[in-house]
Amino acid sequence: MTSSAISPAIIRPDLLRDQFVAAMSRVPLSVAVVVAGAPEHRLALTVGTFISVSADPPMVLVSVKASSPLCKAVSTHRRYVINVLSAEQVEHSERFSGRPRTGRPYDLTAARWTGVPGEPLRYLEGVVAAFDCELVEAQPIASHVLLIGRVDEIILGAERPLVYWSRSYGIPSPLSGAV
Ligand SMILES: Cc1cc2nc3c(=O)[nH]c(=O)nc-3n(C[C@H](O)[C@H](O)[C@H](O)COP(=O)(O)O)c2cc1C
């Protein structure tokens, strides 16, 4: 605990919120693009809340703002893909969070997609890993919905993941000598 820490007993709720946001910005996140919807009307959204829930069976979680159209698409179609971005894919993160440097926000045609022959393309090319999921539970909590999915198919790809940390993008770098 540093000397700048404020006692929890005296902190005001608005200050606590600011501290929470500042503290969470110090926590590194992976960056993923979640894709869902009908083949002819798919939606994609950037998330940083992707975690593993269980390996037996393989299950994962993302937390998505309840007002996002992606929540409705996942709940309706029950299937979605979580594409974990590689270090070269900042552009995708920005596009699918609605703030691309060029082009239209949330434009799936601006990215290259791949998939199983005969099925709609749903994997982003160049990702570190992709998880094809069936929705198990959509749990509303505060402003968000926790989407828990059972993983049915996995794609393994590039090796260097993209990381979001301190409101910037980066790449993880191993510490020499550390296990
Ligand atoms: C690195 C990064 C991580 C994000 N993580 C999440 C997330 O986990 N859940 C979420 O709902 N939105 C997340 N967002 C925000 C969405 O991508 C998108 O910007 C937001 O839903 C747009 O909301 P608005 O239309 O209300 O502005 C993230 C954005 C970025 C750039």
UniProtKB/TrEMBL annotation:
<keyword id="KW-0560">Oxidoreductase</keyword>
<dbReference type="Pfam" id="PF01613">
    <property type="entry name" value="Flavin_Reduct"/>
</dbReference>
<dbReference type="InterPro" id="IPR050268">
    <property type="entry name" value="NADH-dep_flavin_reductase"/>
</dbReference>
<dbReference type="InterPro" id="IPR002563">
    <property type="entry name" value="Flavin_Rdtase-like_dom"/>
</dbReference>
<feature type="domain" description="Flavin reductase like">
    <location>
        <begin position="24"/>
        <end position="171"/>
    </location>
</feature>
<dbReference type="GO" id="GO:0016491">
    <property type="term" value="F:oxidoreductase activity"/>
</dbReference>
<dbReference type="InterPro" id="IPR012349">
    <property type="entry name" value="Split_barrel_FMN-bd"/>
</dbReference>
<protein>
    <submittedName>
        <fullName>Flavin reductase family protein</fullName>
        <ecNumber>1.-.-.-</ecNumber>
    </submittedName>
</protein>
